[in-house]
Design goal:
The chain is α/β, with parallel strands linked by helices and about 650 residues long. It contains 22 helices and 18 strands. It folds into five domains: about 45 residues, Alpha-Beta Plaits (2-Layer Sandwich), CATH 3.30.70.20; about 260 residues, no CATH class; about 45 residues, no CATH class; about 90 residues, Signal transduction histidine kinase, dimerisation/phosphotransfer (DHp) domain (Helix Hairpins); about 160 residues, Heat Shock Protein 90, CATH 3.30.565.10. It is about 45% helix and about 15% strand. A five-stranded mixed sheet has the order 13-15-16-18-17, covered by helices on one side. A four-stranded parallel sheet has the order 6-5-8-9, with helices on both faces. Helix 17 packs antiparallel against helix 18. The mean pLDDT is about 90.
């Protein structure tokens, strides 16, 4: 049965519930943290720690209200932790409020705890060296049944105080009496539904639920008639809700020298205690464990008081009760109910996670960027103690990779970098598109008159006398007009870069063709490195050849005094990578940000148009690739030079 439910709109996926759940019964799916009923032990840790209120205990308020209206006799069994919850009012006012709601009997479960304490005395009094885990906490018994099924045989075969009190009431008032347990523990709901004790307790309501029911009927405790609890009355069983209270009620002590009895409480401590008990390193005859730091800290409480104040409130109530209790009557009641059946059995309900293959765990860890043990930070941000536990949870469908904070941060950083790169590429593409339209217009308007100027300059040059000033002037006009023609041709090439014709190509052959197409200066050494990379790819050979030719030409121009040019071909599964490296003068950091802009050039006046790299950038981007530069122009920082990197997808055609 589901005891804890999720309010989806409140869940902020902070993973606090995952971290705090001792049974790891929370599944993260589609960004929502949901309880897995089969694994849940109903301890309510997730309810207590969720500050958004996204986890809540399933309410029994409507069922209790219907039971009170049914006409049947109904008894309210109040857990001994009530002084820590209703500290603002006298206990007699609380009883009066319950009677106002319609309960016929109001009793303290602490008397059932007295009976249970005596059974634990008897259990340990014999000569047997059998080891037991106390079964007073239903969350603990569920934890053992579901997550340590081999220890089920070690569970003490004794009912909880709640069931013991219900059986006392049925013996005293008959089997038709209906019982409602009111306490701090959501796990009591699961216990009441257990087939082994299902006939004993009809409904379970938390203290929070009781306050809501009182508010629904506008019952204020200070306005009701005072009333005392119905018999039988308890003794030291009222100490059960504090850690070690059961031991004191049973007359047992946690002797550190013998280790016969060991008490543990709290989410982390009880898990460790049970693991050590199972491993045999905790050699105690009785392990008394509470899932919470005592029942006074149960998830069904509304009190915000700290632990020790709650313990003190229970302690003060016990002092007042003991001071005025009728010892003879208590002994008489203990003898009268000594033969109530207080034994029960437990059954394994194995919900342990399967252990994935090591290869699967390693693959999941690698997917989150944890290729080595050193990469496993074990930061706990995902809610799991270790990265390995997180990977196992992912393999079992309980968690998602995105829960790993370092992985998610790195993924976000990568996405931001890609977004920034895409934005930059988009801006550059828009700029190139605008410049392309402008270039086409300029080329069209300039080309015709330029052809006329060039034609007449050559005609006049043919008519001029050799060596004359007119001849020199006309030659200069022709040279500059011819240069303008090349610029116009470059503008037209720039404007036409709008379509890629993919075909199968050999990247190595393409690189060698580019090297052959640009004359090699005598003072420059050329070296090629291909490293056996697979050259097969799909691209537009003519356009990529133009890119490589521009880069090689620029590299030669950057080494007027000689140097070395290295042309590399690299590859991975998805890309071919061209690298053109020179040992020239380098490009300053300031200019590196501008080199792909149209008409920007670092060459001297008259030596460059500023369109070569802009065209190269456009070609690479149309291939869905990337072009980048690494350069050093400061000799003090190391050897000067520039390397251009061109990454182009192997699979050119979009699927």
């Amino acid at each position: 049965m589901a005891v804890v439910e999720t309010v989806p709109e409140r869940c902020r996926t902070c993973y606090t519930c995952v971290r705090e759940c001792p049974a790891k019964a929370i599944r993260i799916q589609d960004g929502q943290a949901r309880v897995i009923p089969e694994r849940c032990i109903a301890c309510g840790n997730c309810v207590r720690v969720c500050r958004q209120g996204a986890k809540r205990v399933v309410s029994a308020m409507d069922q209790v209200e219907a039971l009170l209206r049914s006409g049947a006799r109904v008894a309210a069994m109040v857990a001994p932790s009530f002084p820590a919850e209703f500290s603002e009012a006298d206990p007699e006012l609380l009883v009066g409020a319950l009677r106002r709601l319609g309960f016929d009997l109001v009793v303290e479960v602490a008397f059932g705890a007295d009976l249970i304490a005596s059974r634990y005395q008897e259990l340990l009094a014999g000569g047997s060296r059998e080891r037991y885990i106390a079964t007073t906490c239903p969350a603990i018994t569920r934890f053992v049944e579901k997550h340590h099924p081999e220890l089920v045989k070690k569970l003490a075969p004794i009912v909880s105080p709640m069931v013991a009190m219900a059986r006392v009431l049925h013996q005293e008032h008959g089997p038709d009496l209906r019982t409602v347990f009111i306490g701090p523990c959501p796990a009591k709901k699961m216990e009441a539904a257990d087939p082994a004790v299902a006939a004993d307790v009809d409904l379970v309501m938390t203290f929070r639920g009781l306050r809501e029911l009182l508010a629904r009927y506008q019952i204020r405790q200070w306005e009701v008639e005072r009333s005392g609890f119905d018999p039988p009355h308890p003794h030291l069983g009222a100490l059960f809700p504090v850690s070690g209270g059961m031991l004191q009620a049973a007359g047992l002590t946690e002797d550190l020298s013998t280790g016969e009895v060991v008490a543990a409480d709290g989410r982390a401590e009880f898990v460790d205690a049970i693991r050590e008990f199972e491993a045999g390193t905790l050699d105690s005859r009785l392990l008394e464990v509470l899932c919470c730091q005592g029942c006074v800290m149960g998830a069904g409480m509304t009190s915000r008081a700290p632990l020790f104040r709650r313990r003190a409130q229970v302690g003060h109530y016990v002092q007042r009760t003991v001071a005025r209790y009728d010892k003879q009557r208590w002994h008489r009641d203990m003898r009268r109910f000594a033969h109530v059946e207080l034994s029960r059995t437990f059954a394994p309900d194995d919900q342990r996670l399967s252990e994935p293959a090591e290869a699967q765990i390693a693959a999941i860890l690698a997917r989150m960027g944890k290729a080595t043990v050193q990469d496993e930070l074990d930061c706990g941000a995902c809610g799991y103690s270790t990265c390995r536990e997180h990977a196992i949870a992912i393999a079992n469908g309980l968690a998602e990779s995105e829960m790993c904070l370092p992985y998610t941060i790195e993924t976000l950083h990568r996405a931001l970098r890609e977004l920034a790169s895409t934005q930059e590429a988009l801006m550059q593409s828009e700029k190139l598109a605008s410049m392309g339209q402008l270039a086409a217009g300029i080329a069209h308007e300039v080309n015709n008159p330029l052809g006329i100027v060039l034609m007449y300059a050559h005609l006049l040059l043919d008519e001029a006398s050799d060596g004359s000033q007119a001849s020199e002037d006309l030659r200069l006009i022709a040279e500059q007009a011819d240069r303008c023609k090349k610029i116009v041709a470059g503008l037209l090439d720039f404007a036409r870069q709008n379509k890629v014709l993919h075909e199968e190509a050999d990247a190595r052959e393409l690189l060698m063709r580019a090297l052959r197409s640009v004359p090699q200066p005598e003072n420059v050494l050329v070296r090629t490195e291909t490293d056996g990379a697979d050259p097969a790819c799909e691209l537009d050979p003519d356009q990529v050849l133009q890119v490589l030719t521009n880069l090689i030409s620029n590299a030669y121009a950057a080494m007027p005094c000689g140097g070395t040019l290295v042309a590399r071909l690299g590859a991975d599964d998805e890309h071919v990578i061209f690298e053109i490296e020179d040992t020239g003068t380098g490009i300053t950091e300031e200019n590196q940000k501008k080199i792909f802009e149209p008409f920007f050039t670092t060459k001297k006046m008259g030596k460059g148009t500023g369109l070569g790299l802009a065209v190269a950038y456009g070609v690479v981007k149309m291939h869905r690739g990337d072009i980048s530069v690494r350069s050093n122009a400061d000799p003090e920082l190391g050897p000067t030079g520039t390397t251009f990197f061109v990454r182009i997808p192997r699979q050119g055609r979009m699927e």
